[in-house]
């Protein structure tokens, strides 16, 4: 456990599984830190909310997404269609070198588009290109400016008015995305059918109307716009990066990893149909490869920061109220106390002695962090991560 100051903020980094499990599951550590990117007046989604409003939105989002098929067979069918479309696009290149990321981004993003907007966009659709370009810009800027979290509010507000600053650039691009989402919401309001929910926006609009007479309602326009923005930012990027690493790793290890996955595909799936999520129960090596990729290349090494809502003590460490708490997931996944030769990619670590079955998933495998916050992305991520590599291989 390391504590230091960045600007005016106290920061605590949790570098082992024990401290992350103990601290992040405490009630006072569910608080989201004020974030100048996600915390905007016109867009307050679950990544920027706290207290009852966060709890209400999280519960409602889970309920609606489940009803729409998130993590279920209906979503699996859509993912399979999207993956097949992606595979056909790559096949059309006839073996020419390709930057697979340029194809993965729209494919994965389309899974989110279908849930929130009710339809997918073809790869060459101007709406598809607009969203992918803006989201890519935001993620690139955030990657180079992750210290933005620690800048005091008064300074971030000042920097937002200055040209050529990262804050100004991020807010400008993010603003364009939010404006597009707002236009989609307006269109949904004008075409709403009370008898059916076409997508997440429909369901949220109806909830807003249902609670419109409550001035303290947790379901307001800013929450709808913010939640949709959060789905795109968190869902698309995490899955895309994980699948990208899987494909690169298979290409790098054709005689070991790729060959073993191909053997399981031939034995369980064959060549006449697409993979199904339920196939994972009969494909221990493929699932072990996915788990190992989660560990070996943690896509969100420092996860999403929390903020201590009250003074807290862990062993001999004092964590004052207002402290930013960051879980170092990479450190857990590279901890030699839990993993033999952690820097080596080795799916066998998750299999029984003869490789015929998966062992129980270790508690120390935490690619989506720990606690209630992770549940919105786990199921969709695992389905995407299984279907994409198996079809490509």
TrEMBL record:
GO cellular component terms listed in the entry, alphabetical order: endoplasmic reticulum membrane
One term of GO molecular function: iron ion binding
Domain of life of the organism encoding this protein: Eukaryota
Annotated keywords: Endoplasmic reticulum, Heme, Iron, Membrane, Metal-binding, Microsome, Monooxygenase, Oxidoreductase
Annotated Gene3D superfamilies: Cytochrome P450
Compartmental location: Endoplasmic reticulum membrane; Microsome membrane
Co-factor requirement: heme
Keyword Metal-binding among record annotations: yes
Gene Ontology biological process terms in this record: organic acid metabolic process; xenobiotic metabolic process
Signal peptide: none
Family: Belongs to the cytochrome P450 family.
Entry protein name: Putative cytochrome
UniProt organism field: Amblyomma aureolatum
